[in-house]
Structure formats: structure tokens, C-alpha cells
Amino acid sequence: MNGPLASGGRMAGEERKLSILRAAVSLFSRRGFRGATTKEIAQASGISEAMVFRHFATKEELFAAILDHKACAEGLEDPCELVADAVRRKDDRAVFETLALTALQHHEKDTEFMRLLLHAALEGHQLTQMFWDKYMLRIYEFLSGYIRERQRDGAFRNIEPRVVVRALIGMTMHHSLNNSLWDPARRLLNITNERAAREFTEILLKGIINAPKQSKVTRRAATITRAPRKRRSKRDDLP
Fold first, then answer.
1. Dihedrals phi, psi of 130, to nearest 5 degrees
2. What is the pLDDT of residues 16-40, one digit of tens each?
3. How far is Cα 189 from Cα 203, in angstroms, rounded to an integer?
4. CB 158 within 8 A of CB 67
């Protein structure tokens, strides 16, 4: 009898923990970290404030749990694993387009988390650095490594890899912020995530792919076929 009761107690505990996390994310995303208290989180979860601290002894534990909850409980795939096969094939378009589309779909699905991160950044909250260290830094390192490899292959121009990564993230983030915060009616631009990812990738690749070098024969042929310039005569200078 002790087994089922213990099991039921653990299940109730996990449900309670999830309830606290959902309430915390909801309150923080709407009111910021300074505008929400643990007492309000407890009230929104239907439990006592003491119970909140039983599950999360410190604020750091709560913030770390929020990140884990969003990454794991929501069933998000690791973006690096998502494009691992395309990286092995050196399929540049698939790498960038898949990452862009994944980000756009996640932003559209979870605007609440986007708002929470914006509040954290504006308030100088530690969650910003925790998110950066745990997720963004890994994406920068992973994608920069791939870009460097393609530069060594001669496929990409010699551009700072992290500038390229920032360009991709910048396009997707700005697009998502427009759609969720500034222009939710999409009066300025109304396209699917698939099209946005495809066209952002096209813009990016146009800027970083190395143009194939022309051979001497090709350059000579281009010189021969170029239209001759008209010679200037003295009459051209007359009024």
C-alpha cells in the first residue's frame, strides 16, 4: 500500500511543480520579474508560498527550472541535432533554412517565452545570461564551426563566422518580433514561416557563397565579346 501512495505523492508533487512553473512564466511574461512576487505565483498555482520554496529553494533554481521546462517539457528539439545530417552532407541551404524555420515556428508557438526574455533583458535579469550561456552560445559555436569549415572548403567567403550567425538570428528574431508584438495583424508583411525561412536563407547565401573563379579562357572570351567602346572625337566636344 505504501508503494502506490508514494507513487501518487510523487505524481502530485510533479504536477504541483509544473503548475508553479506555468504560473511563474505567465506572470513574468506579462508583468516582468520585478512586477511579480512568489506570493502571487503561489496564488496563481493554488498553493501556499511555503510550498513554492519547498520545490524551489532559491530564485536561481526557479529560473533554471523555467529554462528546462521550456526546452524539455515543450518537446523542443536540439537545433544542432536537427541539422546534423545536413551538416554532414554540407548542404548549406538545408542547414540555414532548417534553423531559421525551427526558430520562426518556436517563436510563433511560444510568444509568452519571448516576452519573458524581453522583460529579463530590459530589467538586466540573470535569466538573460542563463539563457545565453545554455542555448545561444551553443548555437553560435556550432554554426560558426560549420561556417569556418565551409570557408576552408572554399565554399564561403572570408567573413567573420559570428557575423553570419548574427545576421541569420537577426532576420528571424526581427521577423518574429514584428509578427508577435509590433504588427500582429501582419499588415506590413504577411508570409508563411516556410517562405520567410527560405527567403532569409537566400539572402544570406547570396552574401557569403564564394563565386566560382573564372578561368583564363573564360576571362579572355568575356574580353573579346565585350562591346567595343566608342572612340571619342573632337566633334563630341563641340557645343
1. -65, -45
2. 888 899 898 888 888 888 888 888 8
3. 17
4. no
Where in the sequence of the chain do the CATH 1.10.10.60 domains occur? 16-73
Residue range(s) occupied by CATH 1.10.357.10 in the chain: 79-211
The answer to whether 66 touches 21, Cβ cutoff 8 Å, is yes
The pLDDT averaged over each successive group of 10 residues in the chain (239 residues) is 45 79 88 84 89 86 82 63 94 98 91 85 85 88 97 97 98 95 94 98 97 56 52 53
How would DSSP label each residue in 194-222?
Answer: HHHHHHHHHHHHHHHBPPPPPPHHHHHHH
Output the pLDDT for position 6: 44
CATH placement of domain 79-211: 1.10.357.10
Distance CA 174, CA 75 (A): 24
Give the Cα separation of 141 and 86 in Å (integer).
Answer: 17
CATH code of domain 16-73: 1.10.10.60
- Tell me how far apart the alpha carbons of residues 77 and 71 are, in angstroms, rounded to a whole number: 8
pTM of the model: 0.74
